[in-house]
Design a protein that fits this description.
The protein has 14 helices and four strands. It has a four-stranded mixed beta sheet, sandwiched between helices. Strand 1 and strand 2 form a beta hairpin. It starts with a helix and ends in a 21-residue tail after the last helix.
């Protein structure tokens, strides 16, 4: 049961999976929406520019059907006239093709957005696999595409039949009118019929768009194991992260131990806590904690202090207060200034006594520790 759950694609694609799919060119696309919009734009452009295009076609027809004597008997003039006719057609059709090109580019952005991927153009072995090809030909996707194709043919046939049946008498009547008027009217009828037929494809597109979005999300779904593996790759494996933290702690502890010889005093709670303090009146306004530790680390601090002749003073309440309230390389809290000052004064006087200057100072009694700093 657990193996089935692990292999079932039941989880939504993560942002990383979606980004990788986009890099490969795998985005939701609806060819039906693109086709419908292109045809509707073509029909709308045809209707909007029908007058301009009709005038261009009428001029072309007039020039083509009314050749001059010179054009008839001069081959070079015939080629020039033909080029002129093509130019007139091109100018007449230019707005129509520009509108199609613009919407063809924009329609790709409606679903999935812009996606430029070199990976999508690269040859892939799975695309040339007969087994994969057979599966694509007879899979669910192929069945859906077949249903859409049949639906499009049916819809276009029905709508086209109704539209042509309606405008057919008008089309027959065009032959009895003037050329320019007939061409303009024909352009109008074709554009209107074209628009109605292309509008019918929009129905198919409105059904296809939600399906493509759903199918794309389904293809990107992940198994629970894939989500876990991706999380490990992104965040780092727990054992690796633990090892990194261990190394960081060791480096920080090493730097802390290297700073102990510069301390003025190590205040201890003889068995459990040790705090190394230094006061530099020039560079800081208050004593700074160079090192602190509990249990094994506290013992190591005391050993380093002894090895470097750093004075050690047992003051359990003060050691606990500094350990719990102050981080390494931070100044001691203002509430502990007086207690720390008494300790430092005693240590400085003791150092003078050891140097043969003055009398041995008395050890300080109970240090003034505020209630807020008692632990």
């Amino acid at each position: 049961m657990a193996e089935n759950d692990a292999g079932e694609r039941s989880e939504q694609a993560t942002p990383k999976r979606q980004s990788e799919a986009r890099d490969k060119g795998q985005v939701a696309r609806s060819r039906e929406l693109t086709t419908a919009l292109l045809l509707m734009t073509a029909s709308g452009s045809l209707y909007s520019f029908s007058g301009f295009m009709g005038e261009g076609f009428a001029n072309m027809a007039s020039h083509a059907w009314s050749p001059t004597r010179k054009n008839l008997f001069e081959p070079s003039q015939m080629l020039s006239a033909l080029g002129h006719l093509f130019a007139e057609v091109g100018v007449a059709m230019l707005p129509f093709f520009l509108m199609l090109f613009a919407l063809g580019a924009l329609s790709q952005l409606l679903i999935g957005g812009l996606s430029l991927s070199n990976k999508a153009l690269a040859p892939q072995a799975k695309r040339m696999s007969p087994g994969k090809g057979f599966k694509r030909m007879f899979g669910m996707h192929a069945l859906v595409e077949l249903v859409k194709a049949l639906a499009k043919v049916l819809v276009v046939f029905v709508v086209g039949f109704l539209v042509v049946s309606q405008v057919f008498p008008e089309l027959l009547a065009l032959g009895s009118g003037e050329v320019r008027t007939g061409i303009g009217r024909a352009m109008d009828l074709v554009a209107r019929s074209f628009f109605l037929i292309s509008l019918s494809l929009l129905v198919i597109a409105l059904i296809d768009v939600p399906y493509q979005i759903w199918n794309h999300a389904k293809q990107l779904k992940m198994t629970k194991q894939e989500v876990k593996d991706e999380f490990k790759e992104t965040e780092g494996k727990p054992e690796v992260k633990s090892k990194v933290r261990q190394v960081q702690r060791e480096l920080a502890q090493q730097r802390m131990m290297e700073a102990i010889p510069d301390a003025d005093v190590v205040v201890t709670n003889p068995e459990h806590y040790s705090v190394a303090i230094k006061y530099d009146a020039i560079h800081s306004s208050a004593p700074i904690v160079l090192a602190k530790g509990a249990d094994v680390i506290a013992m190591q601090i005391r050993k380093v202090a002894i090895a470097n002749d750093v004075p050690i003073m047992a003051a359990p309440p003060l050691a606990r207060a500094i350990y719990h309230t102050t981080e390494i390389n931070q100044e001691v809290p203002q509430g502990l200034y007086l207690a720390v000052a008494q300790v430092l004064a005693y240590i400085f006087q003791l150092n003078s006594f050891k140097a043969g200057k003055g009398e041995r100072p008395p050890a300080p009694g109970d240090l003034p520790i505020p209630d807020d700093y008692k632990y």
